[in-house]
Design brief:
This protein is mainly α and 342 residues long. The protein has one domain. It is built from 19 helices and no strands. The radius of gyration is 21 Å and the shape is globular. It starts with a helix and ends in a 7-residue tail after the last helix. Residues 335-342 have low confidence and may be disordered.
């Protein structure tokens, strides 16, 4: 039975030229990203990763990291099932999640763009990942967050509410609280009228879909309320001062700056996404407003020079930039609502 299923899958794959071309490319790019991450994060091989994992499994780590349970339970499951070392299990999980995020993003883009245009979008995202490696930190929820964020956007766009609720729970409730911003995009996308009754109905639906994720994260934070918070919880002064200092001394920022990474992570595509706002489909225009809230929240609570925090926004900003860059795509949105042929 298993052999028959595998044969059937391979047969379908053989008839899909697009998958044959791009899926292997995304795997090797993911592998390249993994090698770069390993080279730029010495804590992986110094014993710090093993030390952190041991503390997490004993529920004795910092509360903001302890509450991101899937970031350490998934590698632990790989370790137990396949008898891997802790470092190897984290490397394998990172490779798998980044690879799957690339593949899902490709097919997410295919709603609007051709195969090669979608490939270009994934390459822009991959370049941003490498900027994220410039700050040597361990945030092992990031790869799974990538996959769940783009999957959540897909479920939101296709109006699959139950699936969106489940993905939001996995992402915002169990992986990284960053994803709890997504209900804002859901509300803005599903609100099709300014009538009070309609907005109330959509608002209640949004709340109901978001409750499991907020409840899950809230319970975990309550359980770990007496654990210290890693890195501090308020960073607005140093973030604003750091950005301002590098803006007024750009020459110094080029050679020594860290806050410049916030701008480099998507480079000119930050600007192109704004230019593409009115050229983009309604879904992207709606979820775009996640971005300012997302950045503002990280300005307050995060170290903004850690550019990998911005990566989830790429799933919104990159297609908007592509709509500005590719006039043909704007025409095809109305002419061909379904995914384009390669």
């Amino acid at each position: 039975m298993i052999q028959k299923s595998i044969f059937s899958f391979l047969k379908r794959l053989a008839g899909n030229r697009e998958a044959i071309i791009y899926v292997p490319i995304y795997f090797f790019i993911s592998f390249t990203d993994l090698i770069l991450k390993l080279r730029h994060t010495g804590a992986w091989l110094s014993g710090k990763l093993v030390e952190n994992h041991t503390a997490l499994m004993a529920f004795q780590y910092f509360n903001n990291e302890q509450s991101r349970v899937l970031q350490y339970l998934v590698p632990e499951a790989l370790r137990q099932v396949f008898d891997l070392s802790i470092v190897t299990s984290y490397a394998v999980s990172r490779l798998i999640f980044v690879f799957l995020a690339f593949v899902v993003f490709h097919y997410f883009l295919r709603k609007w763009f051709s195969a090669i245009e979608s490939f270009a979008g994934v390459m822009i995202l991959s370049a941003g990942l490498m900027i994220g490696f410039m700050v040597q930190d361990m945030q092992e929820s990031a790869p799974l967050l990538m996959l769940l964020f783009v999957s959540g956007l897909w479920a939101m766009r296709e109006e699959k509410d139950a699936l969106f609720c489940f993905i939001l729970f996995l992402g915002g409730g169990l992986t990284n609280e960053t994803m709890l911003v997504m209900p804002l995009g859901y509300f803005l996308y599903r609100a099709r009228s300014l009538k009070f009754t309609h907005l109330l109905r959509i608002g209640l639906r949004t709340v109901l879909l978001a409750v499991p994720a907020f409840l899950g994260q809230g319970v975990l934070r309550y359980i770990t309320r007496f654990h210290p918070h890693l890195g501090g919880a308020f960073h607005w002064p140093e973030n604003t001062q750091g950005i301002w200092a590098e803006l007024i001394f750009p020459y110094e920022a080029i050679f020594y700056g860290e806050y410049i990474y916030l701008f480099l992570v998507f480079s000119i595509f930050w600007f192109l996404a704004i230019l593409g706002y009115f050229k983009s489909p309604r879904f992207l225009r709606s979820v775009f407003w996640i971005a300012p809230v997302f950045v503002a929240a990280h300005m307050v609570t995060g170290k903004i020079q850690e550019a990998r925090q911005m990566i989830p926004l790429g799933f919104i900003l990159i297609p908007m930039a592509l709509f500005f860059m590719i006039p043909e795509a704007r025409q095809r949105v109305t002419e061909e609502p379904k995914a384009l042929d390669a």
